[in-house]
Amino acid sequence: MRVNERIRVSPIRLIGANGEQVGIIPTREALDRARESGLDLVEVAPNSRPPVCRIMDFGKYKYELSKKDKLAKKKQHSFQLKEMRYRPKIDEHDFVFKTKHVKEFLEEGSKVRVFMMFRGREMAHVEFGKVIIDRIITELAPIASVDMAPKLEGNTMSMVLTPKPELLRKIAASKTGAKKKEAKPPNSAVKQEADEAVVETKTEE
């Protein structure tokens, strides 16, 4: 992104500091206008003919872009994708154990990709694996929805579960509450500080 004297092309199409369309003018004139306003001339559409430039506070603009990038990255990483593998002939204990972990992942705010692995002759009866998949969906229905429907690819059937919006709101609220609690000292600590202050005052008397 070119700024001020780095903008070599002339003329340019200028947008004023308040978003008004100034029109096509020489670059030198646009620079003078920017300096008179105590702002910068920033090339915002270099591929246009003529290029489009805008008068703005470039430092503030970069700061706003940085904030947007951080927010986008935060949203991008807000969902971690966990994985759990099942077998069509899984016993009850293993099913309960694995499904409990899937539930924990979801309650942490993570998406979960569930794999149903078939071997050899099991491929002739994929419906047995589908029964297990359907049971997982049913048991976790109160907190999760199916983000990607079960799909068979090769010898693996997979689906993706995502936390329901109400669960995500609950997670966000608990995190906010925890931060507030950390910021505020416990009542016992406040009382202790007050008692120490009283003792110091009596000692001085």
How would you explain this protein's 3D organization?
With 205 residues, the protein is of the alpha/beta class. Among the domains are: 4-57, Roll (Ubiquitin-like (UB roll)), CATH 3.10.20.80; 81-166, Translation Initiation Factor IF3 (2-Layer Sandwich), CATH 3.30.110. Residues 197-205 have low confidence and may be disordered. It has six helices and eight strands.
Task: Outline the fold blueprint.
Blueprint: E1 12-15, E2 21-25, H1 27-36, E3 40-45, E4 52-56, H2 58-76, E5 81-86, H3 92-107, E6 111-117, H4 126-139, E7 144-153, E8 156-163, H5 165-183, H6 187-204
Key descriptive features of the protein:
single chain, 205 residues, alpha/beta, Ubiquitin-like (UB roll), Translation Initiation Factor IF3, four-stranded mixed β-sheet, 47% helix, 25% strand, disordered C terminus
Order of helices and strands: EEHEEHEHEHEEHH
Multimeric status of the protein: single chain
Low-confidence stretches: 197-205
Alpha plus pi helix count: 6
* Integer-rounded radius of gyration: 30 Å
Summarize the structure.
With 205 residues, this protein is of the alpha/beta class. The protein has helices at residues 27-36, 58-76, 92-107, 126-139, 165-183, 187-204, and strands at 12-15, 21-25, 40-45, 52-56, 81-86, 111-117, 144-153, 156-163.
